[in-house]
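hiii so um. not sure if this is the right channel but i have a protein structure encoded as tokens and i wanna go backwards to a sequence. like what aa goes where. can anyone help
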């Protein structure tokens, strides 16, 4: 593997690179100069050519040179380092602010509108200030492409800022050894256009609640759940992008992908493309103004399809999924797949069924409900509301086969 220099993603990062280049250049020049000088001395003052050593005392010009030249070089390097350090530390006052909470072993980003995410979405060309803290031990927030690395400290606030120049995805790493899964404490900065950021930002927080309100007011929720359970109609959880079997005239089915166009058609003319196994649905063509339709479509398609499942988004945002898989694989904690309704053996050997009450306690106060064979490293999530805990448990239930 050849090491590659990650291209600087911000102007401040470019200055940091310049400083490193300057220091490297000065060091390399001094190395070459001293090496050549040494070789020349060895040759010039070899005893065959220079049998009699001279005793030289005092040389004003040599003294001035070896005082002034290194001083200028050191001051130059210091100046370059100081100004680029200042650029990294001086967050503009109008910067967008994001709260960063590190915990074993995930990052949570909280926006001014209350939206939380485990990926740092930011608009391009806009300064972003990160106010950081840690919920447990020391971590360090590191974005190599932006040349920023800042410790997060429990009980203390630190900050960093950046202004991304190009859209794209940039790695976030934890740069402070913080326990077993330190190496997996990863995320990304997703730098997107201003419009896309706005859409993403609104699809969470207030946007979601409004859309759910609309779904309720149009009676959609009477037949379609948001948590994966089956009612008279298919669940809306994760519907975006799913393949749907559509009944065709004369029997049989064809497959349609539930993209944005399909979802729009399914609301306006549901009977034209009926999903196999379900009764018809009334058309909302007359009833639903375009504005409401767009809000619902935006919610269904989300910034990402997973936003539909609030419990899952929460589990991601809270960092649960860094230790608990949803596909049956083992990370640091038990997998969520199939846990709901199944027996678990606790530390003291007792067997309990992982029902709603058990799972709620396991989230809030994990120490008392530790499953045998796992390290007692899970933090308490006592800050979650009952509603959030329930959404998470619903999501776990949907991973255990849906109905109960
Ligand atoms: Cu967090 Cu290493």
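sure thing!! here u go:
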């Amino acid at each position: 593997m050849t090491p590659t220099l990650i291209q600087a993603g911000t102007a401040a990062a470019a200055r940091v690179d310049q400083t490193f280049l300057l220091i490297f250049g000065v060091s390399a020049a001094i190395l070459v100069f001293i090496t050549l000088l040494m070789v020349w001395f060895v040759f010039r003052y070899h005893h065959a050519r220079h049998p009699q050593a001279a005793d030289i005392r005092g040389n004003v010009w040599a003294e001035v040179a070896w005082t002034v030249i290194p001083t200028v070089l050191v001051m130059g390097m210091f100046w370059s380092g100081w100004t680029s350090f200042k650029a990294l530390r001086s967050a503009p006052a109008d910067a967008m602010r994001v709260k960063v909470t590190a915990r074993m072993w995930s990052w949570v980003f909280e926006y001014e509108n209350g939206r939380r995410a485990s990926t740092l979405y930011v608009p391009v060309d806009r300064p972003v200030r990160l106010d950081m803290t840690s919920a447990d031990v020391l971590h360090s927030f590191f974005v190599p492409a932006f040349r920023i690395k800042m410790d997060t400290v429990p009980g203390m606030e630190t900050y960093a800022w950046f202004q991304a120049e190009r859209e794209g995805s940039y790695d976030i790493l934890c740069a402070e050894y913080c326990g077993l899964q330190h190496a997996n404490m990863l995320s990304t900065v997703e730098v997107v256009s201003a419009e896309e950021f706005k859409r993403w930002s609104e699809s969470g927080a207030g946007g979601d609640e409004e859309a759910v309100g609309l779904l309720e007011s149009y009676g959609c929720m009477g037949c379609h759940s948001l948590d994966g359970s089956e009612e008279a109609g298919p669940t809306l959880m994760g519907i975006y992008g799913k393949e749907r079997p559509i009944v065709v005239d004369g029997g049989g089915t064809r497959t349609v992908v539930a993209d944005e166009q399909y979802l729009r058609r399914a609301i306006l003319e549901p009977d034209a493309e009926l999903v196999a196994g379900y009764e018809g649905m009334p058309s909302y063509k007359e009833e639903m103004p375009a504005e409401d339709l767009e809000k619902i479509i935006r919610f269904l398609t989300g910034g990402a399809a997973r936003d539909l499942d609030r419990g899952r988004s929460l589990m991601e945002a809270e960092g649960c999924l860094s230790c608990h898989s949803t596909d049956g694989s083992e990370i640091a904690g038990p997998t969520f797949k199939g846990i709901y309704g199944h027996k678990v053996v606790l530390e003291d050997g007792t067997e309990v069924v992982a029902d709603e009450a058990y799972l709620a306690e396991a989230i809030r106060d994990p120490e008392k409900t530790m499953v045998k064979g796992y390290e007692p490293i899970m933090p308490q999530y006592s800050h979650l509301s009952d509603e959030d805990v329930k959404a998470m448990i619903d999501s776990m239930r949907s991973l255990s086969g849906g109905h109960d």
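oh and The first strand starts at residue 96 and ends at 103.
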